[in-house]
Design a protein that fits this description.
elongated; 65% helix; 0% strand
Length: 272
């Protein structure tokens, strides 16, 4: 991963890559985690405690394993900080953890043992660079977000990164717009089950104009309808207006065909 480390260093400039030593992850001397246990074993104990809802015990175990270099433990701690899950929400602490996971990975490929953690961390950094973290050195930088999404989308095939990259390419966020490339990334993401990508691709396919393709109103409306049915509450807020717009523009025959297709393929994604 040495090449991407160079990119990472250039991207974040003054945002230093911080080690766990002396950070919020300094191990509490009173921790109940036996020091002689291997990091992988402690990670397993911490994850089991987390699933039982014992968040404090889980945090201590995960923190110990993280300090010993366990990528999965670091990633889970980052998720807990990002979501305020069992610990006070702290996006900057999460950012530093995800950054460290990337910086210390030596094998920048999808077959790396830690590929899933690295890919998720790259996407998380992209999200933070897209929105910024108020009161910290992490400010909004759309070109950097776009580059991070591209890395996770192309090297790791991450569906969320492919969706976010497609959306940025479509809107021209962080660089020149490229609707055809946007559609390509959205299609890859939709085929992996990403609801947002399915919705946005369906919207583009409905009239085909933005991506210079022949209109596919039935397929477009069907994809949007399926996406709406599977959307989270957060995604539903932006998907519903697109589906209603397309539904109002479709002919009665196309509506019936699209809805029948959506009914038949409930729980699947259109891949053709």
């Amino acid at each position: 991963m040495h090449g991407f480390k160079t990119v990472l260093s250039a991207l974040f400039g003054s945002v230093a890559l911080l080690s766990f030593a002396g950070s919020a992850f300094a191990l509490d001397p009173k921790t109940v985690v036996p020091i002689e246990r291997a990091p992988g074993e402690v990670f397993s104990l911490g994850f089991k405690a987390y699933k039982r809802g014992e968040k404090l015990e889980a945090f201590e175990a995960l923190r110990y394993a993280a300090e010993k270099g366990h990528a999965g433990a670091r990633w889970k701690l980052g998720q807990m900080y990002a979501q305020g899950d069992g610990v006070p929400e702290n996006d900057y602490e999460a950012f530093k953890i995800f950054e460290e996971i990337i910086a210390e990975d030596e094998d920048d490929t999808s077959s790396s043992p830690n590929a899933a953690y690295v890919a998720s961390s790259v996407v998380a950094l992209g999200d933070y660079m897209r929105t910024g973290i108020p009161g910290t050195p992490v400010s909004v930088d759309l070109p950097q977000a776009r580059q991070l999404y591209f890395h996770a989308a192309s090297i790791f095939g991450d569906p969320k990164a492919q969706f976010e990259l497609g959306r940025m390419l479509l809107n021209g966020d962080g660089g020149r717009p490229n609707p055809r490339q946007a559609a390509r990334w959205l299609k890859l993401s939709a085929e992996k089950g990403n609801t947002g990508a399915q919705a946005l691709l369906g919207y583009l396919l409905f009239d085909g104009e933005k991506i210079s393709l022949q209109a596919q109103p039935v397929r477009g409306l069907a994809m949007l309808t399926l996406a709406l049915r599977h959307a989270t509450e957060k995604d539903e807020r932006w998907i519903r207006p697109l589906q209603e717009e397309v539904f109002s523009l479709a002919s009665e025959g196309d509506r019936r065909t699209a809805l029948a297709y959506a009914e038949e393929h409930q729980g699947t994604i259109a891949k053709n």
